Amino acid sequence: MKVGILGTGSWGTALAQVLVDNGNDVLLWGIDEKEVEDINVNHHNSKFYPNPLAEGIKATLEIKELGNRDAYVLAVPSVVLETTIEKLLPYLDKKTIFINVAKGFHPVTHERLSVVLNRCIQKEYNAGVVSLIGPSHAEEVIERKITVVNAVCEYEEVSKKVQEAFSNNYFRVYRNTDVIGAEIGVAIKNVMAIASGILEGIGQGDNARAALITRGLAEMTRFGIMMGGKKETYLGLDGVGDLIVTCSSKHSRNFNAGYQIGKDGGAKHFMETNTKTVEGISACKVVNEIAKEKGMEMPIVQEVYAVLFENKKPEVALEDLMSRELKSESMKEYNKE
Q: Which of 92, 97, 95 lies closest to 72, judged by CA?
């Protein structure tokens, strides 16, 4: 399969290596001249990884060179997904598969990312949009450590092609047709990862993280079902699986962002100085706004929002969560709308 990857960041590079390991013809497109030269000349992407890349990975600064591909991987932040795909559109010349690996929502319209792509890509060029998502860190994929994710698409014949292109002895891909549920799950888990990092930053331990993951799963499930997702999705890779890895790993940008906020005693400094993509920040804003519109209680999301955007102290947010009205834990709440 001939695959074009938009984005020479850590995830795009790691997925390029998976595809090359599987015998696919891969070309990366990026906007950083140093990264592209490093890939082509040195077979490295030194900005992200210390070790050499697999032979056969190539990169370009010219997006027009990505024309005539069987599939495109969108490995760019959610906030620039729409503008990036618009750059590619003039060079499409046949029906092809679009594989999104970003997690979040459109920052203005609040659309899920597959909705954004289906809206932007003309039907005559769109063979199907697949979200390749699940519990995964690029830092482990590049080292060929065991990773399992989902190819999420309403058309199983399309997701099966993606599944076959990416799967090997260290990277296993399942299929899932619950597009709404899966995309919402992997977006909300980034908000919970920020909360988990905050807990670590203010000195809390494993008990608090376990509580956060469990109660975060409850919020994720309620929100997802309200938006049209299926409850069982949240017990799988794009629910509890992604929630566990992102809330517990030093590789997670969202966790690390939360940790710094917790250590600082507030988000002001981080929000003013951060230069990295932290998807959970924008996702928190979107989810909080939708929850308010729908009249849905999302206490963890609401407190993370208050810390990020209202200068609330993390310790005060935690105290407010712990002093909420006492209630019973019931599986019925996972269906509450």
A: 97
